[in-house]
Write a structure and sequence with these properties.
Layout: E1 8-11, E2 14-17, E3 25-29, E4 33-34, E5 44-45, H1 51-65, E6 69-72, H2 82-92, E7 95-97, E8 99-100, H3 111-114, H4 117-130, E9 141-147, H5 154-170, E10 174-178, H6 184-193, E11 201-203, H7 212-220, E12 224-227, H8 238-250, E13 257-259, H9 279-290, H10 295-311
Parallel strand pairs: 3-6, 6-7, 8-9, 9-10, 10-11, 11-12, 12-13
Antiparallel strand pairs: 1-2, 4-5
Protein name: Phosphotriesterase
Keywords: Hydrolase, Metal-binding
Family: Belongs to the metallo-dependent hydrolases superfamily. Phosphotriesterase family.
Length: 318
C-alpha cells in the first residue's frame, strides 16, 4: 500500500511537505457541500454560486493571517466536489486537503446497506489510492465519519469501522462528526478497536459538549479533541467554548486540541452576513490571547496540531 511519505500532506493539488505549512490551518471546514434535505437550499455551499465568495474569504485570510491550509471534510453523500476544491486551492494559494468517508446516518448512501465493513473499507481505499471519480484527486484524510447519540447506530458503527480499516491500510487519519458533541468516546473505541492508533483520530464538535471530563479522557487516550464549530452561536456561545478549551489546556492537553469554524451553509459566509471562516482568527483567538495564550500556544493550536494530526509526525516550531 502506498502510504504518504513521512511529514507529507496529501492535498487536492498534490503532496505538500509539512514544513511548507508556515501559517495556521482550519482543521474542520467545508468549502463546497450540499446537505439540503428539505429543499430550501440553506445547507449548501454551491460550486458555482458560492465558490467565488468562499475563495475571496480564503484569500483575505491568507493575506491577513497567513492562512496556509484548510482540512475540507465534505465526504460521500455530502455534495463533495473535488474539482471545485482544486480550483479554489489554485485560485487562493491556500492548500486544501480533501476527504473520503461517510457522514452520519441521515446522509448515508445506498452502498452502506448492501456492503459489509470490509467492502466499504475497500471503496475508501480505492478512492485514496486512485483518486475520486476519475479526477486523480486523492483524499488526504478520512472524514467526517459520523454518528449521533451516545452510541453509534449500527450503520454508523459500520462506517466508522470501515473508515478505521481504510486509515490503517493507507496511513491517513480519521476526523469524526459527533452530533452535538455526543458519542465521542464510543467513536474512539470503535476506531481504535480496528487497530487505528488514537493519535490518528480527531473527535469532532467537542465544543458543543459541555463536559470537560470527556474532553480530558479523549485527550488522555491520545485522540485529538476538536473545538471546531467556533462562532456558531446558535449551537453554543464562544464564551462556553473558551471556558471548555481553557479547561483542556489547563489539564495539560494543549497538544491535543484542534480549532475551526465548520462553515456548512452559505448563510455563514461573510458576504451573506455570517461570521465567515475568519471568525476563529478575528474574534476567538483574540479572546484566547486575552486569557493568557502566547504566540507559541496559538501556533501549536492552529498549525502544529492539525499538521501533526494529518501526518502522525512531529512538526517543527516556527
Amino acid at each position: 500500500m502506498n502510504h504518504p511519505a513521512p511529514h507529507t500532506l496529501r492535498t487536492v493539488t498534490g503532496e505538500l511537505r509539512s514544513a511548507s505549512v508556515r501559517g495556521p490551518a482550519l482543521a474542520h471546514e467545508h468549502l463546497v457541500l450540499d446537505l439540503d434535505r428539505v429543499g430550501d437550499g440553506a445547507a449548501v455551499l454551491g460550486a458555482e454560486r458560492h465558490a467565488a465568495a468562499v475563495a475571496a474569504e480564503l484569500v483575505a485570510l491568507r493575506e491577513e493571517y497567513g492562512l496556509a491550509l484548510v482540512v475540507e471534510l465534505t465526504c460521500r453523500g455530502m455534495g463533495r466536489d473535488v474539482r471545485a476544491l482544486s480550483r479554489i486551492a489554485r485560485e487562493t494559494g491556500v492548500a486544501v486537503v480533501a476527504a473520503t468517508g461517510w457522514y452520519y446516518e441521515p446522509f448515508h448512501t445506498p452502498e452502506i446497506d448492501t456492503l459489509d465493513v470490509a467492502a466499504l473499507a475497500g471503496v475508501l481505499v480505492r478512492e485514496i489510492e486512485d483518486g475520486v471519480d476519475g479526477t486523480g484527486v486523492r483524499p488526504g484524510v478520512l472524514g467526517e465519519l459520523g454518528s449521533h447519540g451516545d452510541v453509534p447506530a449500527p450503520a454508523e458503527a459500520k462506517v466508522l469501522r470501515a473508515g478505521a480499516r481504510a486509515a490503517v491500510a493507507t496511513g491517513l487519519s480519521v476526523a469524526t462528526h459527533a452530533q452535538l458533541g455526543r458519542g465521542g468516546l464510543a467513536q474512539l473505541e470503535l476506531l481504535t478497536g480496528e487497530g487505528l492508533p488514537a493519535h490518528r483520530v480527531s473527535i469532532g464538535h467537542q465544543d458543543l459538549l459541555d463536559d470537560p471530563g470527556v474532553h480530558r479522557e479523549l485527550a488522555e487516550r491520545g485522540a485529538y479533541v476538536a473545538f471546531d464549530t467556533v462562532g456558531k452561536s446558535g449551537y453554543q456561545s464562544d464564551g462556553t467554548r473558551l471556558r471548555l478549551l481553557l479547561a483542556l489546556l489547563e489539564a495539560g492537553h494543549a497538544d491535543r486540541a484542534l480549532l475551526s469554524c465548520d462553515i456548512s451553509r452559505h448563510g455563514y459566509l461573510r458576504d451573506a452576513g455570517g461570521q465567515g471562516y475568519g471568525h476563529l482568527f478575528a474574534s476567538f483567538l483574540p479572546r484566547l490571547r486575552a486569557a493568557g495564550a502566547d504566540d507559541d500556544l496559538i501556533d501549536l493550536l492552529t498549525r502544529r496540531n492539525p499538521v501533526r494530526f494529518l501526518t502522525g509526525a512531529t512538526v517543527e516550531e516556527n
